[in-house]
Amino acid sequence: MDLDASLAASLRAVAGPADKRMALRVSSPALRELRRGHPWLFDQAIERQSFDGNAGDLAVVFDDNRQFVAIGLYDPESVIRVRVLQHRKPAAIDRGFWRSALETAAAIRRPLLETDETTGYRLINGENDGLPGLILDRYDGTVVCKVYSASWFPHLHDLLSQLDADIVGFQVTDVVLRLARQVARGETHGLVDGQVLVGAGTEPRVFSENGLRFESHPVTGQKTGHFLDQRDNRASVAELSEGARVLDVFSCTGGFSVHAAAAGAAHVHSVDLNPWAIETIGKNLALNADAVVGCDHRSTVGDAFEVMEKLAAAGETYDLVVVDPPSFAMKQADVGRARRAYSRLTELALPLIVNGGTLVQASCSSRVPAEEFFDLVHFTAERGGYRLDELERAEHAIDHPIGFAEGAYLKAMFATVTS
């Protein structure tokens, strides 16, 4: 497919950045961070700029000796005023730049292309792949582009037109645009969340993960249609599930549940607050009917905290409990509440696990560092009279590389529980 010709006319019509690059002088602390390779320049760090720019204009940071420091995308409506694309050495931000960025990212993910077992993964992980504020997720032939800054609009056509099979390693049939809430509320140049830029954008889109089949909803689903970052941890849960009774709380659309069932779990209990997510688990199980036929599946729509309390009161136990909650710390002020929530989840999960069974507990909050999270889980277990013998500490998969400190968010503990 000729993506350049196929991209929606509304995208091609977005005006490009100003011809002239904006020059910025910034504070000494910001200069130090940029020289260390940090991808964000905050509004309050800017001391002087050559003109008032529009979203997507190219901004160049110079030091006091007029030496180049960094270049990035300017966003006048964001506290992250510049999202840095290039450090230390000047570069032309053009189609060649986007092509090179995609080639570099695709090379990191090449092991995923060596078999056809996984056709759903993150192709561009924002700042961590050198394209801050932009996510590209693959679901078989569909690419979902999630935009977290209006500064990307003038550049999307040139970037997305580079999604050739010889670069990314697969044939792109559909491209769907998703907009973060704060972006959708601003100037979008007529573009809307869920807009199909190329192809039909058919839902659901079925893709493979670790040899299993799953639905994604790229136009209407959460994030880009599925949560891809736990793929490796789901495979690890599968290895522990044969013959087991498994509880999967915050199950969403059943990534852990389906992997456990397909690996020979005797019973899987999925819990999520969202009825649509629970319904989708049934569909994902049906997509893998031959593999999950021997598993008894139960689902509950409800708050995970409340459901676990009721299960414990009823005396139910499991060989394996998976606790994979959403981020509890969307901002720094939430960190205390997040710590309390993680601790409470550990308290609730442990009585549900048979002696010698396994706890899998995860966090997706970058504001709670990995060591702090693991220490908190251990402390809570010890306080309750339980011992955790760790089997594994897992962090990011290959398609979610870490390029800077704030990019490290995912962590999970696998531990045997004794009391």
Just give the CATH class of the largest domain. Alpha Beta
Over the alpha carbons, how many angstroms does the gyration radius reach? 23 Å
Number of strands: 20
Compute the number of structural domains.
3
Shape: globular
Summed up, the helix count is: 15
* Corresponding CATH architecture of the largest domain: 3-Layer(aba) Sandwich
Regarding quaternary structure, what we see is single chain
Structure report:
With 419 residues, the protein is an alpha/beta fold. It has 3 domains: 3-8 and 94-203, RNA methyltransferase domain (HRMD) like (Transcription Regulator spoIIAA, 2-Layer Sandwich), CATH 3.30.750; 22-87, PUA domain (Archaeosine Trna-guanine Transglycosylase, Chain: A, domain 4, Roll), CATH 2.30.130; 229-418, Rossmann fold, CATH 3.40.50.150. Helices cover 29% and strands 29% of the residues. The protein has 15 helices and 20 strands. It has a 7-stranded mixed beta sheet, with helices on both faces. Strands 2-6-5-4-1-3 form a 6-stranded mixed beta sheet. The chain has a 5-stranded mixed beta sheet with strand order 7-8-9-10-11. The radius of gyration is 23 Å and the shape is globular. The N and C termini lie far apart (59 Å). The mean pLDDT is 95.
